[in-house]
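Milestone M4 deliverable, item 7.
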Amino acid sequence: MTTNTAPLERTPRVLLAGVLGALLTTVVTVALAALFADAAAVRSALLGGAMVLLFFAFGSVSVGIAARIAPGTAMLVALVTYTFQVVLVALVFAGLTKADAFESDLSAGWLAAGLIAGTFAWMAAQIITTLRTPIAPWEGPASDGAEGGPAAPVSTEEAGAA
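Output delivered:
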C-alpha cells in the first residue's frame, strides 16, 4: 500500500491563497471605508476582514488536521466547523448589537461588507488555486485496486477488444 502525500503538499498553497485573497479584499474594503465614510466604518471593515481570516483559517486548519488523522471524517469536520463559524458570526453580530457598538463605535453595513467581500475573496482564491494546481495522473486511485499507485497500462489491443 502506498501513501499519497501530494494533496497534503497542495493544502498550504490553497490556504495561503485564501488568506492572501481575504487580506487583499480587507485592505480594499478598509480603503473604501476610509475614503467614503468615517473611522467607525474603517474599524468595522477591518473587524469584518479579521473575522473572515480567523474563522476560515480555523476551519481550514481543522479540516486539514482531520484529513491527515482520519480522512473519512474530513467532510463531517468541514460541515461541523462551517456550522460553528456561521453560528459564531451570528453571535458576534448579536453581541455587538446588544452592546450598542453599532450606535457609535462600529458600522453594521461596513462590518457586513468586510465579511461578505472577504468570504467571497477567500472562496474564489481557493477555488482558482485548486483548479490551477496540476494533479499528476498517478495521484488518483489505481484501476488495479492499489491505493494511490499508478493505473495499470492499457494496451490499444485491450482497449479495442472492450
